[in-house]
Amino acid sequence: MNISVVNANYQLPPARSVLVRVPGEKETHFATIDPAQAEGDQVSVIFPQCPLVKEKIPFLQATPISSRWVSSPMAQQPVRPDLEKNPEVRQQFEAFLSQTTNLYLPLREAPWEAMEPATPEYNCIANTLGWKTEIPGFGFKDYTFNVMDYGDLYLKNGFLPLGDLDASPQAGIEKVVIFGMNTQDRGYWDTIRGAISAGLTIQDRTLLITHGARQEENGLYSSKFGDQALIATMHPEDVAGVGYGNPKAVFARMRIPSQPEASTQ
To answer: How much is the mean pLDDT over the chain?
Structure first.
């Protein structure tokens, strides 16, 4: 299948299906396309802007023009968090929240589900890729503040930057929301001081990456709070605030039934 943009030609990757962005009237959907059945169709290539990616990454974009296109998956309505799940973990995390004063104010009002107990074995970035151990270079003691390292990490694991902050759940699509702080965000200087006191090196102070949330299969977003518990909320913004700042980038890939080992190579 030929993919054309401006005066350049792109050849569709030899995968069975690829992620294609399909603009809609009210929202953007995603679809998978079978190259064998789409021969002759034309799609364009866009280069979404993402603060975590230095070079523009080509992203397929198209409007279905024939029955040869696989139908775009329907938007998925997330289930509500189960407030009765894992009561011991919930009690543990509530105790943590009570000690954080105003760091996670939205979470004090939003419903959340207790998923897994506190552990120092992995952090939020590892959770975004399904790891239960630290990812080298992104752990507690070697946490990187090099913004581009995060873009590289997700690109190597099959994610594409969306260029916007559309975190809405959709069947068959897995999204990761990356949080960060700019100089104008509350908590920025406290984060700087905390990182320095922990012996971490800050390569770029323009944007501090502080957190990552992963969309689960039921549409909820899971968040690992440092060495504290893993919880799930309906919206990634539910964990925003002075502690983590705000969503700065969203990555997406086709969801696969069993998560592979994350790659850092």
So the answer is: 74
